[in-house]
Specification:
The protein is an alpha/beta fold. The chain contains four helices and 14 strands. It has helices at 8-24, 29-41, 45-52, 177-187, and strands at 64-65, 70-73, 76-79, 83-85, 88-94, 97-101, 106-107, 111-119, 122-126, 132-135, 138-140, 143-147, 156-164, 167-171. The strands form three sheets. Strands 2, 5, 8, 10, 11 and 13 form a six-stranded parallel beta sheet that branches. Helix 1 runs antiparallel to helix 2 (29-41). The chain starts with 7 loop residues before the first helix and ends with a helix. The relative contact order is 0.12.
Length: 189
Amino acid sequence: MRDLRASDADRERVVAVLGEAVADGRLTPDEHADRVSRAYAARTLGELTGLTGDLGPEESQPILVDDRPVSVLFGRTRRDGRWVVPVRLPLLALFGTVELDLREAVLQRRHIVVESMVLGGRIRLLVPEGVRVDVTGRTILTARDLRDRPVTDGPTIEVGGTMIFGSIRAQAPRRTLRARVRGRLGRKR
């Protein structure tokens, strides 16, 4: 995951965090200049994450390269922002809620598998337009609310594993009024 190519937007996110750090006095001007030049020269996401790792907690990092399992016990956890989604993501929710915001995430492949173990918990997925969500795991008394808007040959998020007394909800961003009207007018022709 650390070897994925960085985009210009990724570099700009890192430079913005470095700018805040020099303004707060956490970096000297020389350290700032050195890290900014390394940020603009970075080719991979791994090189970028090393530049801001000592400037704040994990949840405030501009890019998160993390393949650890997502787990919660009697609480709530969330992954959002710019993060790299591994091909197989283990997920454990015991009487808690796991929220995965994939709208800005980097999908390593077109088919991602979320291996879940849910007992009395909830999975909430925020997916970008065009991503399909398929629940293929065993579900026992588990509610499903899939409001994705997939496109042909679009990426797929497969939720496998076992879900007991839980719920899974997937939602794409709301469409603007203009897009909804355009969609209805286009179907009537």
